[in-house]
Amino acid sequence: MGAYDGHIGAREGSVLLFTVLGSMLFLQYPQYLVSVGGPAAWQAALLVALFGLVLALPIVALGYRFPGRGLAEISREVAGSVFGPLLTLAVSAWIAVAALVTLRNFTETFVITIVPDTPPSVLIISGSLLSVYAAYRGVEAVARTALALLPVIAAGGLLVLIFSLPRVDTTLLFPIWGFGFDRTLMGSLYYASTAAEVIVLLAVGHAFRDGRSLQHSSLRGILLFGLAAAATVAVLVGIAGAPLARQEPFPLYFLARLVYLGRFLQRTEALIVMFWILAALIRLSALMSATAISLAGALRLPDYRPLLFPLATILSALSLLPKDYVAVLRLDREWMRPLGFAVLAVPLLLWLLAVVRGKAAAPSGEAAGHAS
Amino acid sequence: MRRRPLLGALLLLLPLLTGCWNKMELEEGAYVLAVGIDEGKGSPYAVTVVIAKPSALAGEKNGGGDEPPVLTTTAEAPSLASARAVLHGYVGRQVLFHHTMVFFLHEELVRTKGLPFLDELLRFRQIRETAFLVVTREPAADFLRALKPELEKDPVRFIAQLTYHYRTSGTLPAASQIRAVASLLNVGYAQPVTYYAALVDEGSPAKKGSPDPRVGYAAGELPRQGGIPVEMIGAAAFRQSRMVGVLTGEETRALLMLQNRFQSAYAAFRDPRQPGQYVTLHLRRGRPTRIVLERLGERPAIRAEVILEAEVVAMPSGVDYSEPGAQEELERAVAGQLEETLQALIRKTQEWRVDVVGFGRYAIARFPTVQAWESYSWPERYPEAEVHTSVRVSLRRYGLTLSPTRASEEGSVQ
Fold it and tell me: Does the predicted model carry a pTM greater than 0.80?
């Protein structure tokens, strides 16, 4: 089995990106949206998705220009053998920190909500081992797993939302413009980099046969995420009200705890935890794969897999560094999201350089050997 | 190659093992069914817990016998979670709040100090936001000790069944869950109400309640003898987090009608042609209550129209209200009496400065932004609001007989 064997179709790609982004809906992401839009948080969700789509366009353009190539190869070809790898390293560092934050964030979430007596290190090690195993099997395996598990994960989230509907008080979604459309717009712009994880698709760009697959994967994934986020925050605000929803870091868990259909259906949070675990693992595996593949490409290593275990060990150790849960949230909100813009600027820069320098993959060329 | 799937399967099992640190056998837990919160003497709170005795709750066949089904005990502590430490000094099992369904709060505490423990109810992971809040006129500890239902073994199940009466009698609020109260405390368009309960001392002097349907009874005022010394009827109204007053059962029914949450109830009304006699009707919601905000400004104006359907259940006066003219007269009389209750409710809540109906819901949609809504300050406008109510009652049926029975005619005053 070659390190870069396997391909991702448009369907698998869009589901992979949707799972990577959508898993954040189990965490504090809806809280960000409510803090931006208040009762109009659903508008913020749609705006963030819209901005995300715009920010993803350079990735799509690069996909068309360099079909079947990953970030590492494109940047080396377009930006040269020194500047190119540096850009790739910067991006892979951001993805690595995103993986680190994900690892700790989910760990803290599990400890706070369901397993208060489990040492965080046990959860971190379990998550890391599983993601290393999945990443070792290749990006295609991760994407196909995401596609196979989508019905389970989506049904889990959807059922919680549907069963919560009887409790929704639509008055809580008013005033219709929240804190004002201008403030929602500006706030959404700040969180537009929430979709920055779309860079993962470019990092594993070698797995896409053509630009069209990458385009569909990126845009559909973000669009689905926007719709899911809008529905989630609308139900959350409709039940808790904006002031309370703003303080709710585990929105779907909160909603699942409220599901109470007589004596027949209650305590559904035990079920949603399973979906959390699956979504978290797919996100982590995708981020881990993208980090290792980019690193290997930047360092011109023939195979990314030997990097996985050391990378997971380092990330696991580093994920214990933030002193508490609030520090993790701050790291994500105050550093990761703003730096997400810088990460999304890399494909834009590469595309501009490619246009200026007239660089593109050979029309008849098969996807070049990776990191070779 | 065969080892890889095996390795994958083993790794997939790994997350399931992370729960092992939290394992607890059922026999190790003392499951709290209900909690009472009173003001403490040495600590901020006196926390009374009602702990289930599973074998006794299961009944005689399973070995329960005459053993009390629950253990009720009080511990003083600054919070619920810290009360566990006190309880663990003399309760062998681990005290757990995962199954707590009701929180009883002493009226005096919530009138003077509000709901400072609400933060813990929302934050502490063992507590579910679907648990009910019940304000008790007497100390919650006394209430819980007196809670020994006769038709049920489980006292909390008894309370849960009482709550269902909001559908059949309409004398309890539609929602009194922690989540519902907390979300209304944080928005400006309505104030919360909770269940209200009281202990009854049959030897006490005259009760305050009135048989007049316009006034009705609150908990602790029901005209009755026998049964357990516990009543839950009416509602406790809150302004911000402090309790400000009690609504009677009739007023609570009017509240449900205005909130469009009334389902059905048997209710007696003064007979329009025979003063001193009553006509009993089975009321149902006819159409959804229509509330129109006619004007904002300094004095907002609201119009509410309640539409009900009714079936005659008892007409002891012997007057034949099935005659066309008489039917309309009875409909108007019932509507008029209901309207008086609606107006009494509105006057009361305006005096208390609490919009428990939630008329603000119809105002908030008129404001484009949160800032504009907050600067309008609905809670301050509501007491000045002009609220016009109208009730339409349509008599649809007359029970199993149409004209007055002979016994009624004989008993009627001609």
Answer: yes
Q: How far is B360 from chain A (nearest CA, A)?
A: 9
Cross-strand partners of B37 = B47, B105
How many helices (DSSP H) and strands (DSSP E) are in chain B?
Answer: 15, 13
Strand partners for A266: A260
Which positions in chain B touch A180 (Cβ < 8 Å)?
368-369, 371
Interface of A to B at Cβ within 8 Å reads: 38-39, 110, 112-119, 122-123, 126-127, 129-130, 133, 137, 167, 169, 171-172, 174-180, 239-244, 254, 257-258, 260, 266, 277, 281
A248 φψ region: left (φ > 0), alpha (ψ -120 to 50), beta (else): beta
Q: What single-letter DSSP state applies at residue A50?
A: H
Q: How far apart are CA A35 and CA A201, in angstroms?
A: 29
ipTM score of complex: 0.84
Closest chain A residue to the Cα of B126, Cα to Cα: A113
Contact A43, A227 (CB under 8 A): no
CA nearest A240 in B: which residue?
B183
Q: What is the mean pLDDT of chain B?
A: 88
Structure tokens at A33: 């949206």
CB contact under 8 A, A171 and B372: no
Phi, psi angle pair for A143, to nearest 5°: -65, -40
pLDDT at A366: 45
> Who among B18, B184, B186 is closest to A122 (CB)?
B18
* CA separation for the pair A195, B328 (Å, rounded): 65
Binding-site residues on chain B for chain A (CB distance < 8 A): 7-8, 11-12, 14-15, 17-22, 125, 128-130, 179, 182-184, 186-187, 189, 358, 361, 364-365, 367-373
Residues 6+ apart with CB under 8 A from B324: none
Number of other CB atoms surrounding residue B319 within 10 Å:
23
Distance CA A67, CA A206 (A): 8
Q: What is d(CA B138, CA B330) in angstroms, rounded to the nearest whole number?
A: 41
Angstrom CA distances, B60 to A196, B31, B67, B72, B154, stand at 63, 20, 9, 20, 13
Domains of chain A, earliest start first: 10-351 (1.20.1740.10)
Q: Is B127 helix (H, G, I), strand (E, B) or coil?
A: coil
- Distance of alpha carbon A185 from alpha carbon B34, whole angstroms: 46
Task: Inspect the interface and report whether the beta carbons of A179 and B369 lie closer than 8 Å.
Answer: yes
The confidence score (pLDDT) of residue B156 equals 85
Q: What is the pLDDT of residue B249?
A: 93
Contact check, Cβ <8 Å, B14/A113: no
User: Which of A117, A122, A241 is opposite residue B183, by nearest beta carbon?
Assistant: A241
Residue A202 has pLDDT above 70, yes or no: yes
Give yes or no for a contact between B288 and B256, defined as CB atoms under 8 angstroms apart. Answer: no
Residue A4 tokens read as: 């870069």
* E strand segments, chain A: 260-261, 265-266
Phi/psi for A172 (5° steps) reads -70, -10
Token pair, residue B2, equals: 């065969």
C-alpha span between B28 and A242 (Å, rounded): 40
**Does A364 have pLDDT greater than 50?**
no
Cα nearest neighbour of B7 on chain A:
A133
Task: Measure the CA angle with vertex B192, ends B190 and B193; round to 5°.
Answer: 135
Between CA B305 and CA B390 the distance in angstroms is 5
